[in-house]
Design a protein that fits this description.
Elements lengths: L2 H11 L3 E5 H14 L6 E6 L6 H9 L3 E4 L2 H9 L7 E3 L6 H9 L3 E4 L2 H10 L5 E6 L21 E2 L3 H11 L3 E5 L9 H15 L7 E3 L17 H19 L4 E4 L3 H4 L3 E12 L4 E5 L8 H4 L6 E3 L7 E7 L7 E9 L6 E4 L21 E5 L2 E6 L4 H5 L20
Parallel strand pairs: 1-17, 2-3, 2-10, 3-4, 4-5, 5-6, 6-7, 6-8, 8-9, 9-10, 12-14
Antiparallel strand pairs: 1-11, 11-12, 11-16, 13-16, 14-15, 17-18
Helix pairs in contact: 2-9, 6-7, 8-9
């Protein structure tokens, strides 16, 4: 997208605002599909938690994607967006048996990541196919908060508990149709990914009726100019060949599944915010914008980097700024960033704002969540309206008489 397009959107829909480039999403989907073209059966299940706007889900469905969901609400969104139940997989963590049963009743595929629920579900519903999430005990990911396959992680069933797992499957006579892992996000070293995959292949040999093996995702995308990323083409060649060899050993053509989220939508997203104040202190020049971690929390939560540019003055002299928000705690988006000279009223553009940005937004400080706009075939389409005060108080119950001032009784002598 060009600066002129983004500035026009900011003017039309106000700021702050999220913008998503549909063509970039389509391109990333095709890139990952092409990387694994050597595999006969490939299934990409888009991770809804990355960006769950229903229009984005409809776009993914139109591409032939499946859907990876982590809550019953995401399942229901997927069904509303037109996904067939069999194209949705439910991969929750720490939810109740009741929620898993609700998802199962809707006809979606089930992925269970703990022995307790596996035994309970298998005892009650032995005929319903179940996928099992394994923890391979492989440390991978760009931040401790998004590394989910190590030994201290709450996710998955430990590979050291395989004997216990097999005992449950045998006693309940469950039908295990899939094996799954997810080691973490921002994986750069494909050798780590391949190592964890070998653990998954070895585990898969314990089950006779598998239909698919799900290798999770976590592919790293570039966050700034010259940044490194996961070489999905090389991974496709190496893992694709190993997968085909395993299918030959297994005696059945299985489906190779992934659940990409960030890889598909991160680079497609732009977050636009206006500069309220340029503030010079004794040591720093702050550019304070009309947003905060209520709209984009990744830099504060994960230490994530988002490239920031001044699209109002792209040819201006570069200076150093610390870009901060309006929340009444420290909400720094970037320290000492080299940005084209900023004036109050300029629009700053945050790149890589497609994944885990709006979906993690909140009403903290009683601020409204921003609108979302899809850029498709050269035009801007509003896919979520900006919130209003009515949205803020919609579900609050104002018990007006509960704390009403009490009238003092007047004693008459």
């Amino acid at each position: 997208m060009k600066n002129a397009d983004l500035l026009k959107i900011a003017k039309s829909y106000g700021d702050p605002v999220y913008v998503y480039d549909a063509e970039k999403i389509i391109g990333q989907f095709k890139r990952l599909t092409n990387a694994f073209k050597g595999v006969k059966n490939l299934k990409l299940n888009y991770a809804a938690k990355a960006l769950s706007n229903i229009t984005i889900l409809r776009l993914m469905n139109s591409l032939g994607s499946g859907l990876d969901t982590v809550s019953i609400q995401e399942v229901e969104l997927g069904l509303m967006a037109g996904f067939k139940p069999e194209d949705i997989i439910f991969t929750p963590n720490g939810v109740s048996l009741e929620e898993i049963e609700r998802a199962s009743a809707l006809g979606v595929r089930i992925n269970i990541d703990n022995l307790s629920i596996l035994e309970q579900f298998g005892s009650k519903h032995p005929k319903i196919p179940v996928c099992i999430r394994i923890n391979p005990h492989v440390m991978a990911g760009g931040n401790s908060n998004i590394s989910v396959g190590h030994i201290d992680s709450k996710f998955g069933i430990s590979i050291h508990q395989i004997p216990h797992l097999l005992r449950i499957v045998k006693l309940t006579k469950m039908n295990i149709n899939g094996i799954h892992m997810h080691t973490g996000s921002d994986i750069l070293d494909i050798d780590v990914f391949l190592y964890a995959s070998e653990i998954l292949f070895e585990t898969a040999k314990n089950f006779e009726n598998l239909d698919f093996i799900d290798f999770g995702s976590g592919f790293k995308v570039p966050y700034k100019e010259g940044d490194i990323e996961t070489n999905v083409e090389e991974l496709g060649k190496k893992l694709g060949k190993r997968f085909n060899d395993f299918c030959a050993e297994y005696g059945k053509e299985l489906t190779l599944a992934f659940e990409p989220g960030k890889f598909l939508v991160s680079e497609a997203g732009y977050f636009l915010a206006k500069v309220n104040v340029v503030k010079q202190t004794t040591s720093t020049v702050f550019a304070s914008i009309d947003s905060g971690f209520n709209h984009l929390i990744r830099p504060m939560l994960y230490g994530a980097t988002h490239s920031i540019s001044n699209i109002s003055n792209p040819g201006g002299r570069e200076r150093y700024y610390s870009v901060v928000g309006y929340i009444c705690e420290t909400d720094t988006f970037g320290n000492n960033r080299r940005i084209n000279e900023i004036a109050e009223g300029d629009i700053l553009c945050f790149r890589n704002a497609g994944a885990y940005c709006f979906t993690m937004a909140s009403n903290y400080n009683s601020r409204y969540r921003p609108p979302e706009v899809l850029w498709h075939e050269g035009r801007a389409i509003l896919i979520r309206e900006r919130e209003t005060f009515e949205d803020l108080i919609r579900n609050q119950v104002d018990v007006k008489d509960l704390f009403a001032p009490k009238k003092e009784k007047i004693l008459v002598k």
